[in-house]
Amino acid sequence: MTAVLHKGTEQLPQLSHGVSSTDFVQAAAPAAADLAQAAAMDGRTLDVGAVLTILWGIGMIAVLFLAFWKNLRFSRRVRRGAVPVEADCPLPVYLSEGLSSPCLLGLFRPAIFLCDQALDSQEHLEMVLHHELSHWRAGDRFWAVLRLICCAIHWFNPLVWIAALACVQ
To answer: How far apart are CA 12 and CA 19, in angstroms?
Structure first.
């Protein structure tokens, strides 16, 4: 299909069934205008940036909600039935049933929760308390919150999750 020029005007090629390209363009123009008008939907257009921002916000809220829910469940499970332990420690110390390892728990009122094995000997108890106090002095609970915020903001980035897991282990 080649265009032939006649006296300064362009001759459009013929399409199948004897319809010229000019006829096709003239017939398609109102349909294209109708599509543009339908897409505009009374002045509202689909903004990809807004959709992505909404999806990002939903993902961030979901990550924060899931983390809050899991931490609340863990805290309730550990604190339920916890028995105070007399120890030379600046933080409250408790013995908790069903805990697999000792942990420092609580952001604003931290306490140390021990498992049964931590009470095997006085020397072992002192080592466990020193270890958990080192987490408290280093501010690890605040770093954990910062790590969670980074994961929530960048929930879509697998490298952030890999880095967060590397910090925990």
So the answer is: 10
Cα separation, 117 vs 73, in Å, equals: 23
- Residues 47, 40: contact at Cβ < 8 Å? no
Six-digit token string for 5: 């020029």
In this prediction, residue 98 carries a pLDDT of 79
pLDDT in tens, 1-10: 444 444 555 5
How far is Cα 90 from Cα 55, in angstroms, rounded to an integer?
45
CA distance 146 to 163: 13
Provide the β-strand partners of residue 14.
20
What residues form DSSP beta bridges with 83?
A: 95
C-alpha distances in Å from residue 42, one per residue of 36, 39, 49, 88: 11, 9, 20, 71
Task: Tell me the three state secondary structure of residue 17.
Answer: helix
Alpha carbons within 13 angstroms on the beta-carbon side of residue 77 total 11
